[in-house]
Amino acid sequence: AQKITQTQPGMFVQEKEAVTLDCTYDTSDQSYGLFWYKQPSSGEMIFLIYQGSYDEQNATEGRYSLNFQKARKSANLVISASQLGDSAMYFCAMREGPVRGGKLTFGQGTILTVHP
Amino acid sequence: AAGVIQSPRHLIKEKRETATLKCYPIPRHDTVYWYQQGPGQDPQFLISFYEKMQSDKGSIPDRFSAQQFSDYHSELNMSSLELGDSALYFCASSSRGSGNTIYFGEGSWLTVV
To answer: pLDDT tens across B78-92, in order?
Structure first.
C-alpha cells in the first residue's frame, strides 16, 4: 500500500491566487515527520516546509503553509499568492522510524503550473 | 548558508563501468542519505548513515556500496553499471539541530550508455 498519496497529477492556478496540493499518508507510528519539496525542471530538490506529528500548530514558511489534519492523515500544502516561479513538481514525503537516519518516503508528485 | 554539495553534477559512463559520487553534507549535520530518482519517478531511498555508521538501507542494488568518512562526507560507489542505473542521484543531510528537516543537494545526473 502507498504510504504517501498525492492524488493530483497536475494542478493549474492563476498567478497571485492560492492553491492547495493534496497529500495523504499512512503510518502506524506515533512519531513521524511530513515534508514538502519543490523540484523545478532543473532537477534540484528544494525543501519547503516540515510538520512533526506532535506539532500542534500548522507549519508556515512564508507563502507556504501546511494544513495538517492528523485524524484524517492529511498534510496538504497551501501556496498563497502564486508566482510564475512556483511552476514545478511538488513532492510530499514522510519520515518514519528513528529521527536520525529515518528515511523519507515520497509521494508520486504533483506538477503545478502557474498561469499569468 | 552552506548547502549539501554533490559532485560531479553530471557524468556519462558506459555499461559495466564504475562510477563514484561524492557528497559533502551541511556542516554539523550528522546524517547523510542517498536517493535515486529515475526519469518521471519519485526519489527512492538507497541508504543512510548516522555518525558514520549505516543507519538504514533501502532498495540499493548489491552492485552499489556507500560509506561515510571521518569528515562526514559520503561516497556512493556503483559498479557494473547498467542502462537502468541512469538516474538523478541525490544526497541529503540532516541533524537534530536543523529541526529534523532534511536538505537535499542539487543531485548528480548519471547517464549510462
So the answer is: 999 999 999 999 999
